Queue: 4 jobs
Job 1
Amino acid sequence: MNPDSTPADQWDLVYTPRWIRRVAFWAAGVVIAIHLTFGLLLDISYTGVGVGWSDKIGLIAVGFVVAGVCLMPTRARLRVGPAGVGVRNLVGERLWEWDDVQGLEYPEKGWSAHLLLPYDEHIPVLAVQARDAERAIDAMTRFRELQGEYAPAR
C-alpha cells in the first residue's frame, strides 16, 4: 500500500523527533559556515596554485551538498492510523497494515524504537528516539492505544 495515497486526515498520530532535528540543523549550519568561509578565503594568500572563482564556488557547493546530507535525519516520521503504521526513516516511507504489526518497543541498548513484525523481524523507527524523553514516551503510549483500537485481536 502506498502511504501517500492515504489522506492526511486519516492519521491519528503523526510523530517527528525534536532532538535530532535540532542537531541536524545545527550541524548543517556549521558545515555551510565552514565551507562558505574557506571558499571565500581560499585565495587570501598565494600558495603557488592558481585558485579561481570556479574553485571557490565548487567548495561552497560541496558544503551545501554535505549540509543536505546532514539534514536527512529530519525526514524521520511515524504515522499511525486505521490503514496501518507508516514509517519514514532516511529515504522513503513504508506502510505496514495492522495485520503485520506486532508492536513498538525500545531495544535494551538502542536509541530508537523498533517496529515489531512477524517472524522476529523488526524495522528501526528513527522518529521515536530516547533523547526526546517525555515526547517519545507519549508517542509510544499513544501508539499502543491506537494499536489496541485498530489491530486485530491476537
Job 2
Amino acid sequence: MKKKLKLGKVLRLCFTLSLLSFLCCQIAYSQGRISGSVSDKSGILTGVSVQVKGTSLSTTTDQNGSFSISVPNTENAVLIFSYVGYTKQEISVAGRSVINVALIEAADDLDEVVVVGYGVQRKKDLTGAVSIVKAADVQKRQATTVAESLQGLATGIKVRGGGQPGSEAQIQIRGLKNLSGTNPLYVVDGLITTANRDFNPADIESIQILKDASAAAIYGSRAANGVIIITTKKGKAGPMQIEFSGKSGLQSIPRYDLAETDEFSRINFMAYDNAGVQRQRLDLGVNTNWQDEAYQTGNIQDYNLSFSGGTKDASYYVSGGYFGNKGTVISTDFDRVSFRVNTKGTRGIFTIGENLAISKAKRDEMSGNPIVDVFRMLPTIPVYDASHPGGYGYGDEARARTFGTNPVAIANIEDRINENLRIRGDVFAELQLLKSLKFKTTLGYETSLDHYTYLKKDGFWTLNQAFDPAIYNENRAEFSSLLNENTLTFNKAFNKHSFNLLVGQSYQKTKYAQISGTKRNVLFNPSTGTYYDVLDQGNEPQTGGYRNRFDLISYFGRLEYNYNDKYLFNGVFRSDGVSKFGPQNKFGYFPSASAAWRVSKEEFFKVSWIDDLKIRASYGTLGSSNIGEYEYQGFINTFSTIALGSNQAVQPGATQVRLANSNLKWEKVIQQNYGLDAAFLNNKLTISAEYFNARTKDVLIAFPLLISTGNDGGNPRVNGATLLNKGFELTTTYAGQVQDFRYSVTANLTTLENEVESLGYTQNKTFVGNTVTEVGQPIGMWYVLQTNGLFQTQSEVSNYRNSAGKIIQPNAKPGDIRFRDNDGDGEITNKDKMVVGSPWADYEIGLNLNASYKGFEFSMDWFGSFGATVFNGPRSITENFSDNSNYLKGVQPWTPENPNTNVPRAFYGSSVNSRGDTDRWLENGSFARMKYVGISYGLPEQLISKWGIKNARISLSAQNLVTITKYTGLDPEFSNSSIFEKGYDFGAFPNLKTVSLGLNFGF
C-alpha cells in the first residue's frame, strides 16, 4: 500500500517547484547567445579569443572567423576580443545578439611571442636586445635578399645593398666586431644557414634580430656578429587557403651628367696646351653617350603562390615562387625559382614535422665596371670600329689615348654565368614526456651545387690590351652541411614563479669541394655563331681543385626565471669546439646573463598613463672562429725540386710557403647592454632605448711579415687586436585610430662609435690607401694632404713660405692647388698628411609611416645617415685633367679669365693638381632617402566574393625615389668590401630607382 503524502510536504514541494520555475524564467529572460565574426583588414581571423569579461566563459573563432557564446546578461555584459599581434578590444553587448568585430594590428603588442633561439618568449619578458621586424615590412619592398629590405626597419642595423641583379647586401649589427667584415648568423626554422639570393623572402613569417650577448649567446661562437632568426610560414587549422602575390617593376640607374664632344674637346685641348703637349687628333664627328650604350631599363618580376591549411593535429604550407631581374646594365640578369614545403603533425605526446626548401638560381654576371667605364671612355670614341680586332672602338694612341674599357665590348666578349642549386631543410620530432618536460631532436641538411662558366671570345675592349685567345673556364663546387641538435626543455609555473630550463647539444659538419678546368684557343662554330663551350675543345689545359671541411660541436643551456612578471632573469652558457684551431685551443666558453625589473608592477608605482615600464641589463661573451679551415697548420708546396749529387739528379722536395701559428684561439666579444622599455597611453605609444658596449679581444688578423722570413704564401693569422664598439639606440612608435582612419609612426635612431684599442705586436697604426687605423681612433680614418684654395697669381706662389722663408711650392703656377705645409719644413710631403675626417656616420635614423582608411593603405619608409665623410673616387677621375677621361658637364677649370672657381687649371700628364691623396675628393656623405613609398587598395568584398575570392589588393609602390644629399657622386649609400676604406666610393654600383605594380589575392 502506497504512503500518502502529507499536506505540508506537498505544499513545500509546490513552493520549491514554483520558485525554480520563476528563477529559470528570470535566467531565460537575461541570458542570451551572442554570435558574430572577427576579421582584420585582409579578411577573417581564425583562433581569435572571445571572452565574457569578469567570467571564465570563453570561446575562439572557427575556420570561417565565426563565434558563438552564451552571455549571462545581455544588457551589461562585455566581450573581450584578443589575438596575438592585434590590439585587444572590449565591446559592450548592450542587448545585441550579433556582433561583428574588426581587429586592428597592434603597433607593438607586448604579449607577442617572439623566437629567441631554441624557444620563444613573450616580447614583454625579453631581457636582452632583440629587434622584431614585421614580415610584411620586408615583403613590401622588392629586393633579391632579406638583408636589402631590413634597412631602416630596426636600430643597430647597417645595410648597404649591391644594386646588381643577384647581388647580396652587406649587413652589420652594432658595428664591426672584427676585421673580416663577416655577416651575421642566419637561423631559418632552426637551421644554421644563410638567407642569401637563393632564399625567397615571400616565405617569411617573422624576423627577430638578436643584437647583444644575452640574446645571442645561445648560438655561442657563431653569434659574434649578431643573429637573424627567420621563421617561415606554417599552415593553420581550417580549409585550404590559397594566396597569390605578383609584382612587376621597372628599374633605372642613376647617371652622371657628362660632357659631350664639344665641351670635352675644349677642356682636353686646354689640358694639353697648359702642359705644352701636342694635342690629340680627336674625332670631333663622333659624340658617343656611353651611358646610353651601357645602361638599359631594368625589370623585376616577382610571383609567389602558396597553399596552406590543416586540422588541430596537422598542418601544411606549400609555396612556389619565381623572381626575375633583368639588369640596368647590358648583359646582366638574375633568375630564381624556389619551392617550399612545411608540414607538422601531432599524435598524442608525439609531434613530427619538416621544413624543406629548394631553389635554383642563375646569374649572368657583370663584366668590368661600367659605372667607371662610362666616364673613362671618351665621347669621341665610337662604339664600333671595324679597324680593330673584334670590331669595337676603344681609342688609339693618336686620336684618343685612354685606358678605359668599352663596356659594350667587354659585355659581349665575356660571358660569366653562375648557377646554383640549393636544397636545405630539417626534420624534427618532439616528445612531450611530461606536461612540463619536452624533448626535441632536429636533423638538418643543406647542400648546394654550384656551376660557374667563363667564356672569353676573340676580341679586344681596351687600348694596348695584350692578346689572349678564346678561353673557356668551368668551375664546379659542392657545399654540404649536416646539423644535428637535441634539446630538453622544462617549464614549470607555481604561485607567482615561472621557470624555463633548456639544455642542448649541437653538432655540425660542413664540407666544401671544388674542381676547375681551363682551355685556351677554344673553337668558333661559324654555322651557329657561337663557341664550343666544352672542355674537350681547345688546348693548353689547366686544372685545379681543393676540398675543405670543418666540424663544430656544442653544448648549451639556458635558464629563464620570472617572478610575477616583475623580476626577470635569463642565464645562458655555451661551449663550442671547432676544428679550425689547434688541439689546445679548440674549445671556447661563452656565458651570459641578463635581468629585467618591471617597475610598473610594483605597488608603489601609481602612474596611470604608463602601462608598462621595464629596465633591463645584460652582460655576456660571444666568440668567433672566422678563419680558414686549416690556418693553424703550415702550408706545404710539394711541387718543388732540387738537383743533388755529382750527376745533378733532380729530386722531389717540399717547401713550407706560409708560416703557421699553432696557437690561434677564439676571438671573444664581451658585451654589455642596458635598456628601457615603456608603453604609454593604453599602449598607443611605446619606447625602447638601449646603450651597448662591445669589446672584441684577440681579433684574428693576417699579420704582415716580410717575404725574406720565408713567408711566401700569404700573411699568417694571429690574435692581435682589440676593438671597441659602443652606441645608443632608440625606437619609438605611436599608433592611433580616428573612426575608420588608422595610423602609426615609428622612428628609430642609432649612434655608433668604434675604436681600435690595440693592434697587437707593438703596432700603433696601419695605413691602407688614404686611411690610417690608429690605436685610440676609429678604423680607417681619412689621412690625406690638406688643400688651401688655389694660387691666383705668381706673387702668391712666391709669397707662400714657411717660417724660415722657404718657398713651399716653388714650381706651382697660378691656378694650381695650394697645399698645407703642416710640419713646416717648407715642402709638401707625406709628412704633411693629417687625419681630416671619419667615414663613420655620427647617427642613422629610420622613419616608418603607415596609414589606412577603409580599403586604402599608405606606407612610407625613410632612412638617413648623417656625419660621415666619404671619398668620391669617380670625381677624382672626372676632375683631375691629367689623363684622358671624360669630364663632368659644366666643370669650370681655372683660367685667367675664370679665376672664381675651386677647380684647378687643367693640366695633362702631371699629378700636380690631380693627386688622389688629398682632401679635395672628400665630401659630406650625409643623406636622407625615401626607401619605400606605396599605396594599395583592397577590392570590395561584394565585388570579389562572386569569384570565390576572400580578399584582393592592388598596390603601386616605389623605392629609392627621393634622395636628399650634398654628395655629388651617384649614390651616397654605396658599399664596398674594404674594412679599412669603408667610406671610399670606388665606382660602386648604385641603388636603383624602382617603380612596381602589384596584385595580391587569396581564396
Job 3
Amino acid sequence: MTSVSEGVGELRRPLAGVAPGERGATRIADRVVAKIAGQAARERLTDQSPDTARPQATVVVHHDTVHVRLHLELDYPCDIGARCADVRRHVALRVRALVGMEVPEVAVHVERLHLIPAHGVAHGRTR
C-alpha cells in the first residue's frame, strides 16, 4: 500500500535554504518599460499646450539594458535641443530607478512643433 501526501507540509517549507539568486527571476515586459518611459517624458513636458499629443515610446530590451525611442511634440518657440536633452536625461533616470535596467540610449524624435503665439500679438489678419 502506498501513502498519498496531502502536500500541506511541502508548501510550508521556508525559503531560507534557497539562495536568493536561485529562487527565480522577475521579467518586466517590453511594453511596461515603454509605458514607464512615456510617462517619464510626460512628467517633463507638463507645460505643453492642450492640443499637443502625448509622448509615445518604443523600447528594445536586451538582458538588463533598455534602448528607448521617444516620439513627441513640442511647443514652439523653445530651445528644442535643451528640451530634448532634459527629457532624455529624465527618462533615463526614471527608467533606471523604476525598472532597474541600464539605459545607454534615449533617442528623441520631435514629430511636430506647435506654434504658440507671443503675448500681446494680435491673432488673425491685421491692417
Job 4
Amino acid sequence: MRLKCTSLKYGSILLLLLLIGQSFNFAYAQTDRKISGSLLDNTNQPIIGASVSVKGTSKAVSTGTDGSFSIMAKTGDVILFSFMGYETKELIVTTASTYKVTIAEASATLTDVVVVGYGKSTRKALTSSISTIKGDDLNKGAISDVGQMLQGKVPGLNITRSGDPNRSAAIILRGASTLREGAQSPLFVIDGVVGADISILAPDDIASIDVLKDAAAAAIYGNRAANGVIMVTTKKGVAGQTQLSYSGYFGVENVSNQYEMMNSDQLKAFLAKNNSSLTPANDKGANTNWQNEVQRTDAISYNHNISFSGGTERTTYNASLNYFKQQGIIKTSDLDRFIGRVGVEQKALNDKLKLGFSLTNSVSNSNLVPYRNTVLSQMLTYLPTAPVKNADGSYFDNLTQSNYYNPVSMLENAQENLKYKNLLGSFTANLKLPFGFSYDVAASYQNYQTVYGAFYNSIYTSRYNNVRNTPDPPANPSIVSLIGQNGVGVRNAYQSTNKIIETYLTWDRKFGDHSINAVIGYSYQNSVIGDGVQASSTNFPINQVGYYNLSLGNPYAVKDFRVDYGGNTYQEVLLISDFARVNYNYKNKYVLQGSIRKDGSSVFGRNEQWGYFPSVGGAWNIDQENFMKNQNLLTTLKLRASYGIAGNSAGFNPLTTKLIYGSVGQFYYNGINESAIGAVQNENPDLRWEKTATTNIGTDFSLFKGRLSGSFDWYNKLTSDLIFEYDVDPNIYPVGRLTANVGKMSNKGFEFVLNATPVAGKDFFWTTGINLARNVNKIVSLSDSRLALAKVYTVQPDGGGQTGATVQLLEPGLPIGTFYTFKYAGKNAAGVSQYYDAKGNLTTTPSNRTDYYAVGNAQPKALIGWTNNISYRNFDFSVFMRAVLGNKIMNITRADLFRPNTAQFTNIPVEVADESTADFNSYRYSSRFVENGSYLRLDNTTLGYTFRKGIPGVKSLRLYATANNLFVITGYKGIDPEINQGGIAPGVDTNNFYPKTRTFLFGLNVSFN
C-alpha cells in the first residue's frame, strides 16, 4: 500500500514536470517574434502607407517608403494587408520571418467591392450597370465643384460646366428624363446619407465614386432615383500607425479664348467705308479692349489639404482640413471655402458591434457678379473708342443710349455676396447577429445656411436703374428697375435642414453552392426648406455702407420704394419609405436580384402620395462554366440584364398640389381701392411623381489575364407621367393653368468602355482607357384624354428688332433642345439675308413661328473620354482628352453682334467687316447662327515625380505640374463650345458664356512617418 502511494506520489510529480515542460514549450511556441518583409503591387512597385495588421488583435503598422513592414506575430497568425484600390490579402505566418507579399489592384478584376444602396457587392455579383471611379482617377485641377471631377470619366454622364467658380456643373445621366428645370440631376448619396450636398466634400477626401445608372441599380432609392444615383465614398482611417499627409497646389488661370472684336482703328475704318461715323459722345479717342478690362490677366487659385488617420483593429479615426481659393476670371468674382471633416469607427462586443460617427462642415464665401450676363454682353458691345474713366477719375458713361452701360463701372459699383455653411453629421451602428444576420441603424442631420447680400450704390441707382437683365435660358430677358436712390441694398438669411433615420436588417448566408443576401428596411426623412427672412432698404448716406447696415438707409423718403421681403416660401417635406432587396447566387455562375421600394411623400396630391418602385435583374458569369476552364483568352465574361422603375420628385414643394389664393388685383369700394383676393393656383389631388422604366442589357469582359477589359451596355429608358403646366378651361378650374402628369419621354442608347495595359514592365507601366456613349432623346407625347399640347415654344432671347422670336421647340417626336427658327437661304442680289417661308419660297420678311423649321439639335450624338497613365520609375505622366460630337449650338451672342448698320453705337466683331450695312436681316435668329458644337479638348495633363527615399521623417514626396484645357479643336465661333446641355433649353449661347480658362498648377503631395 505504501509502495503504491509512493509510486503515485512520484508519478504525480513526474506528470506535473511533464505538464510544466509542455507549458514552457507551448509558451515558447506562442511567443511573438518579428515578422518583416515588403509589400509590392503586380508591377513590383512598393506600396507605401498600406495597412498591415494581425487579424483579431490590435497590432497594426503601415508600410514604409520602400513598401517594407515589420510587425510582431507568431506562427499561425493571419496578417492582413489592405490598401485603397487594391484587394485585401491574408498571409498565414509560418516558421519563416521574412516575406515578399504582392497584392493586385481591385479595379483589375471583377471581384472589387462596389457600393450599392444599403450595402456593398462584388462586381462579379452585379446584375445592373454601375461605373466606379477611384479617387486617384478623378479629374485634377482647380476644381470648385465635384461634378467637374467626373467630367468625361463615366460613359453616359454628360457634364457641362461654366468657367464661373460659383456655378455648379450641369449633370445629365443617360439623357434628360423630365421637362422641369432643376430636376434633371442625379441623386447624390455620401457615405450612405441620401441627398447630401456634394459641395460639402473636398476632392482630396473622396476615396471612390460609384454611378448607379439603370433603374435596377437605383430603384432601391425609389422616387428620387429616375436620374440615376451617384454614391460617394469618403476616405476612412485604417489600422496602423498614424498617417499624416499634406497636399497643396498653386495655380494660375488665363482666358483661353476671346471674341475678336474691332479695335478703334478697325471700327472707324469700317464706318468710313460705309459713309458713317461715331457720334461725338462716343468718340473719345480711346482704344479700349473691354474684354481685357473686365477680365483678370491672371486669376490665382490655390488649395491646401492636411489630413491624418490611423488606429487599431478596433478603433480607427480620420480627420482633414481643406482650404480652397479660386479667383474668377471676371474681376470681383471669387470663391473661398473651408472644409473640415472628422470620423471615428469603434468596434465593441468582440467585434460584433461597429459604431461610426462623422462630422463634416464647410464654410464658403462667394463674391458674385451682379447682372453677370449683362456685364458679359456689354464687354463685347461697348465701343472701343470710349475710355473706362474720364479725366477726373469718374467712370465714363454715355447715358443718351438705351441698354448701353460701361461694364467696368457695373462691376465696380455693385457687389453681390453669398456666404453659405453646410453641416453634415452622421451616426451609424452595425450589429452582427447569429445565423448570418446583421442589423444597421443610420441617422444623419444636414443643415444648410445661406447669408446673401447685394448692394447697388448711388452710381448704379442713378445710371443703371433700368438694366436689361439677360438670365440663362430658358428664362427670357427683362428690364429690371432698381427703384430707389442713393443706393439699394438687400440682405437675407435662410436655412434648410434635413433629418434622416434609416434602419435595415441584412441576411447574408451561404448554403453549399447557394448564397443569399437579403435586405429589408425603413427610411424616414424630414426636410425643412426656406426658413428665414429678407429685407431691403435704400437712400443710404454713403456708398461704403454696403449691404451690412440696412438700418442706415432711409427708405421712407423714397415715394415708390417698397421693402422686398423675398420670394422664398417656407416648406416642410416628409418622406417615409419601406424597401427590400434579395440577391441569389448559385456557384458564382448565376445571379438573380429583385428589389422594391414603397415611398410616401407629402409633396404630391392627397390621392397619389404613395408609389411603388420595383426592379429585377439577372447575370450569367460565363467564365465560371466548365467549358471555359481550358481556354486562356478570356479571363472574365459576364452577361447581365435588368429592368426597373424609379421615380422623380425633385423640384417640388408641398404647395404645388394645393389650391392657393392670393392678390389678383384691386377693386373700388366706398372710396377706397381694396385688394382683390382670388385663386392663383389650381389644386391637383392626383399629381404624382414621374416614373422612369429602364431596360438594360450589358456584358463585362477581360482578356489576357486582365490586360484588356471592358463593358458594353444597351438601355431603353421610358419616362411616363411627365409633369408640365397646361392651359385649362377657367369655367371648370378657378385658374387657367394646371400642373399635371401627362406626357412621355424616351431615351435610348449604348455605352462602351475599353481599358488596356499595353506595357507592364518593372520600370515602365502604361494603362489606357476609352469610353464612348450615345443617347437618343425623344419627347413621345404631351397629351392624354384630358389635356393636350401640340407645341411649346421656348427661349425668347428678345434681341433688338426681334421681339417675340423664339429659337427652340418642345414637340412630340422631337428631342429636347430642338432648334426651331428661320431657315437661312443666303443673300439676295441686294445683299439682304433671305429665308425660306413655310412653303419653301424665298423671303426677306419671314413671320415668327409660321415660317420656322427644325434646323438641328443641341444634344450630342456621342460623348468620348480617353485616359492615358504612364509611369517610369519615379516619374508619372497622365493625359486626359474629352470629345463631344454631333451637337448644335444656337449662337445668339454672335447673332446679336451681327449689326453692321448700328456700328456707330455698339461695337461689332472683326468678321462683320465683310457684311453690308444694307442687310437689315443680318442679325436675325436663324439657321445661319446654328453652329456645329463638336469639339475635342485636351482636358488635363500631369507630370509628377515621387521621392520615395532619403528624406528623414518623410514617407513619400510627390511634386507635380498640371495643365488644364491646353487646347480645343472645334469649328464653333463662340468663346467656347462647352455650352450648358442641361435643362429644357440646352445648347443656347445667349451672353451666358462665362469665359473658360487655361490653368497651370504646381503642387505637391507629402506623407510623413
